[in-house]
Amino acid sequence: MSATWRKWVLVGVLGLVGCRTTGSAVRESAETPKQVVQFDPVTVTADLELSELNDEELFAGGTSAFAANDFARAARYFGRLADFHPNSSHRHEALYNAGLAHERLEQWEDANLRFSELADAEKGTGDALDAAFRLAETQYHLERFADAAKVLGTIAARGDLPVGKRLEAQVQQGVCELESGQPEKAEATLRQVLTTYEGLSDKDEVEDYFPAQAHFFIGEIYRLHYEDVKLDPARGSDALANDLNYKAELLLSAQGHYLRAIRVGNGHWATAAGTQIGGMYENLYEHMVSSPAPAELDAEEAQVYREELRKKVRVLLTKSINIYERTLEAAERIGSQNAFVEKTRKSLDKMKALLLADTDSAPGSEPSPAGPHS
Which of 142, 145, 174, 247 is deepest in the core (most CB within 10 A)? Predict the structure, then answer.
């Protein structure tokens, strides 16, 4: 998946947490260097503005800056506290908040460094557990998918955590496995999430965001399989027909999982799923209209082929328009505003224009009336 998708995969829920103002106990460790490395002398320039502040003043300044959305300043204050006041009662909060500030700035390496010192995926609670989730998020954005999946798998396997937290971790684990090029493993992980979820007597134990996300990404797995099937007229009409049928089957499989994501009722993933369904019909339309007739057909057969293709293309255009319209209606009804809404709106306009152009060019059709002259 592209970096654009990564804006909404993990950040959706984790990115809503504010900075910390209370502490929690965590496990700390240190490694003894195995060798001494000597460097040339360097000059270190101190942060003179902060050098005279004590830990209480640094914490207060960082908290104020974070509240004002001045994340660069917050990172400086919290970072200074964490680095120069190791015995402060605020150090753990400062580590976490420094990581959050770097995260808001998309400084993933710096955020990773801060969260890694605090995170405890195996036994941590409170800030240590939240930091483990965020450590996985930074690894995801740094494309260290296997590392992120390992952290999340450790959390998901913990019997001492509420089922909601375990399934949250397991869904994100499946996403990371998909990103790391392991679709079969990802599908197994995501299906396990849904089996556990469906077996709950009280589904309110789990936020609807996560089962919806699991259904959505199983849909994504089938969409990727769909995209792998190429329509090549050079292979002959029989092979082309078989490939087209297989591609359509994968589209329907993906659509089924996207529809399940919509039925869960989470606004974010319902909008995303509707957009993807419409996009697949749009994609299949583009494949079909750009594909020449098989070379084995004579002129008369090729004409029949194109006429039949036009009928199927109109069906695809109509389906994509219908799905895009329903997606936008649902988004408006629930007040959803995300990247998918604007994408859906643009795609809807495009499909309507294509359908209008196809109608105008159809044999025996009347041209569309011209608009008023200026």
Answer: 174
